[in-house]
């Protein structure tokens, strides 16, 4: 039986058969200053001021970041920060904004079981993101919007390079094809674990999300614009890029009403400040 694993970055913090951390499998370095809604969610596990990347996320408002509910390891908001405009995790790109998290809002129907879905959360930031030329609010899909089988999207994130834990410095990107629910929910694929509120992509044994990519976006060009259609949720235990076991995302179009009710997204524009 294939076991579900949340696609977190480990550092010994999550339950897995063998703790390890992997990247967007089959990916390559993203071009700088692209995917500008991508967030590095960072965690201070010992409250000692040392933060490290645990998950991805997406900017959905000047005050809000969307991520996966399973990325929330503590409800103490002071243990988290969002880094936007990030590209190289280990260097100062002069594009980053580091903003503390003020409030954590987990979907009310998240029960800690990946197979039951609702793996989505919003983080309210302590100060608004300002437009420094390297950040952008993500476009979201329409409520209920579905993607056809085989549709090519792009997964982005900062997991490790392989199953032995080689960590990439730069944001990774890879094309990944949607697997429609009618296929993904068959016994040969994810079966009953694939709910209609989820979106499957990959399963070719080559490209997949993996540990460290959780909470990050599935980016799809629809209606002429890039939209975040998915939030990285889970994959198979062991090797992430297994045939017929695609990466599973929370389907954003199933949660638009909740996102808007929580964040009150009225104006999709970043706050502009003039820095003296």
Topology at a glance:
Elements: E1 4-6, E2 28-29, E3 38-43, E4 52-59, E5 64-67, E6 80-84, E7 97-106, E8 121-125, E9 152-157, E10 172-179, H1 181-184, E11 198-201, E12 217-222, E13 225-236, E14 247-251, H2 256-263
Antiparallel strand pairs: 1-13, 2-10, 3-4, 3-6, 4-5, 5-8, 6-7, 7-8, 9-10, 9-12, 10-11, 11-14, 12-13, 13-14
Organism: Austrofundulus limnaeus
Signal peptide: 1-16
Protein name: Chymotrypsin-like elastase family member 2A
CATH architecture field of the domain at 151-253? Beta Barrel
Low-confidence stretches: 9-23, 272-276
The succession of helices and strands, N to C, reads EEEEEEEEEEHEEEEH
The main β sheet shows up as: 6 strands, antiparallel, barrel
Q: Could you give a quick summary of the protein structure above?
A:
With 276 residues, this protein is mainly β.
List the main descriptive attributes of the protein structure presented here:
single chain; 276 residues; mainly beta; Thrombin, subunit H; six-stranded antiparallel beta barrel; six-stranded antiparallel β-barrel; 2 helices; disordered C terminus
Describe this structure in words.
The structure is a single chain. With 276 residues, this protein is mainly beta. Among the domains are: 36-125, Thrombin, subunit H, CATH 2.40.10.10; 151-253, Trypsin-like serine proteases (Thrombin, subunit H, Beta Barrel), CATH 2.40.10.10. Helices cover 4% and strands 30% of the residues. It contains two helices and 14 strands. It has helices spanning 181-184, 256-263, and strands at 4-6, 28-29, 38-43, 52-59, 64-67, 80-84, 97-106, 121-125, 152-157, 172-179, 198-201, 217-222, 225-236, 247-251. Strands 9-10-11-14-13-12 form a six-stranded antiparallel β-barrel. The protein starts with a strand and ends in a 13-residue tail after the last helix. It holds the Pfam family Trypsin. Keywords: Disulfide bond, Hydrolase, Protease, Serine protease, Signal. Belongs to the peptidase S1 family. CLIP subfamily.
């Amino acid at each position: 039986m294939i076991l579900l694993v949340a696609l977190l970055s480990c550092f010994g913090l999550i339950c897995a058969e063998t703790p390890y951390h992997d990247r967007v499998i089959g990916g390559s370095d993203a071009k700088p200053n692209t995917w500008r809604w991508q967030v590095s969610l960072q965690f201070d596990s010992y409250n000692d001021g040392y933060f490290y990347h645990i998950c991805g996320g997406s900017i959905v408002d000047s005050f809000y970041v969307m991520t996966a509910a399973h990325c929330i390891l503590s409800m103490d908001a002071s243990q988290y920060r969002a880094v936007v405009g990030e590209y190289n995790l280990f260097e100062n790109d002069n594009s980053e904004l580091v903003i503390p998290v003020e409030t954590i809002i987990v979907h009310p129907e998240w029960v800690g079981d990946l197979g039951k879905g609702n793996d989505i959360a919003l983080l309210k930031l302590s100060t608004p993101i300002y437009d420094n030329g390297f950040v952008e609010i993500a476009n979201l899909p329409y409520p209920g919007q579905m993607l056809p089988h085989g549709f090519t999207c792009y997964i982005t994130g900062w997991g490790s390079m392989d199953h032995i834990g080689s960590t990439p410095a730069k944001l990774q990107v890879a094309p990944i094809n949607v697997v429609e629910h009618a296929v993904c929910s068959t016994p040969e694929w994810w079966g009953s674990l694939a709910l209609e509120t989820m979106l499957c992509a990959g399963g070719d044994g080559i490209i997949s999300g993996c540990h460290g990519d959780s909470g990050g976006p599935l980016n799809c060009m629809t209606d002429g614009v890039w939209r975040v259609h998915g939030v990285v949720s889970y994959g198979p235990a062991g090797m992430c890029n297994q045939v017929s076991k695609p990466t599973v995302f929370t389907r954003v179009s199933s949660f638009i009403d909740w996102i808007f009710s929580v964040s009150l997204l009225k104006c999709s524009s970043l706050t502009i400040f003039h820095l003296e």
